[in-house]
Amino acid sequence: MSVRFQLSELRETSWTDFAVRFAFGGAITVLAGYIAKAYGPALGGLFLAFPAIFPATETLIERTEHERELQNGGLVKMRGRLSAAINARAAIWGSLGLVCFAAFVWKLLPIWNAAGTLLAALTVWIAASVAIWRCSRWVRFALSRNHRSPDVSG
131 in helix, strand or coil? Predict the structure, then answer.
């Protein structure tokens, strides 16, 4: 299964799915606010960093793909779980990019202006995420070449 971006998929997402994601994200944000008020902004920030939409998105992806599988007569086994796994892998790459973003802001915000730091950190996040994605593709390709079955013909 390949990863691709298709705007047409937005039409297939129901308003209920968007509402679930919004509500889950809002609930996590409120919880992070309560934790920050009770225990301080450092701990609250850790909970705010929780990818609030990720669990709801994974559940919705799995359900949607499972429904497609049933509509197609079950021709594609495990499509929902595979789609959710691919999304989880992409979330890992994006999270590693966000670690680069956070480190950049943490180190440079005291010496640069806020707008310049955030713009540069955004660039670092995008560059790091794309670099991680490209490296993972390269590693997967290299591993697939090394794991080919040996030629036993001669």
Answer: helix
